[in-house]
Amino acid sequence: MRTWVADLTGLVIGFALGGAALVHFLPQIEHVWRPEMLGQAPARQVRVPSVAPRPAVLGPPRLAPVPDSPALMPAPAPLPRINEPDESDPAEPPPVRGTGVAGTGFFVADGLVMTAAHVVTACRRVEIVSPFVRRSLAHVAARDTRHDIALLDAAGVQAPATLAIGRPTASGARVFVLGYPATAGLLIPEATWGTLENDKLPRQPASLTDPREQVWMEASQVTHGYSGGPIFDPRSGKVVGIVRAMLDGGWLRAIRGMPESGMTIGPGSALLNAFLENAAPGTDAFPADQWGDDPLTVVRHATVHVFCWH
Fold first, then answer.
1. From CA 276, how far away is CA 281, in angstroms rounded?
2. Do 196 and 248 meet the contact criterion of CB atoms below 8 Å apart?
3. pLDDT tens digits for 198-249?
4. Model-level pTM?
5. Of 96, 127, 104, 123, which is closest to residue 231 (Cα–Cα)?
6. CA 177 to CA 229: how far, in whole Å?
């Protein structure tokens, strides 16, 4: 009986993922300034194996693991309007025109920013900015399109703060999320709170339900522009995942106790750490309490607005 129930629950999860409609699937694009073509080093594709073993049989094709489904990519936010730079400042990037999208990222080391791969896809030019970092050029140093993770190299940019990556302190933990939706403007991010919901799911398949591999979070305020933003556990002072997609909860109502709306998913700490180890071996991010600040203050210093100019 237990085996039958577990198999049925697995099917429900698979159909929930295969049949769930993303909120606002099509990208939002805004005409701004046109960028000149800049020579950039090509991104290195990084393949990160799942940490937890995958079952031999997952069921029908639509039960494929979440990272394999190209439909699970939400649109980033439209690019914000950027004022003319100060031409007397040689460090300021030149003005640009064109179209593109924007998302969120965070420093894992000096000059290294982690974000979602779909935020920086097909970019002719990538920039980062925050209240603590001047608008600076970056390039995509590595990407894992399967799990939707990317690493940006902003050479010479000193991180105001860096965030370490670790597993959640507890099931059902409250987590803090920062992002740059269109309503946030150019420099000031918006913040919201979420609740991890992985404990509502069965233990198998682990690639879909283990919070170290896949974070399931109820956070109704997450929307376009949060993509790539840190999902932060203030109790541990570490990032437990990044925002990848928003799910419609229609299919999720079949899972007992699962919220029917406001669900967000993203790669968890094991995948993020494995990616970082492959992309930038030896990177050592310090825990938030190193500075003696409130952890949420440290997150705000480490988070940046990411621009992808097409």
1. 7
2. no
3. 999 887 888 888 999 999 999 999 998 999 999 999 999 999 999 999 886 6
4. 0.77
5. 104
6. 7
Is residue 47 pLDDT above 70, yes or no? Answer: no
* Cβ–Cβ < 8 Å for 149, 222: no
Joined together, the tokens standing for residue 116 give 């979602």
**Assigned fold of 2-37+74-80+99-309:** Thrombin, subunit H (2.40.10)
* Close Cβ partners of 3 (under 8 Å, ≥ 6 residues apart): none
State percent of the chain over pLDDT 90: 49
Q: If you write DSSP's letter for every residue of 77-107 in order, what string do you get?
A: EEPPP-PPP-TT-TTSPPP-BS-EEEEEEEE
Question: Dihedrals φ, ψ of 281, to 5°?
Answer: -55, 140
Which residue ranges make up each domain of the chain?
Answer: 2-37+74-80+99-309
Q: Which residues lie closer than 8 Å to 248 by C-beta, 6 or more apart? A: 20, 21, 22, 23, 261
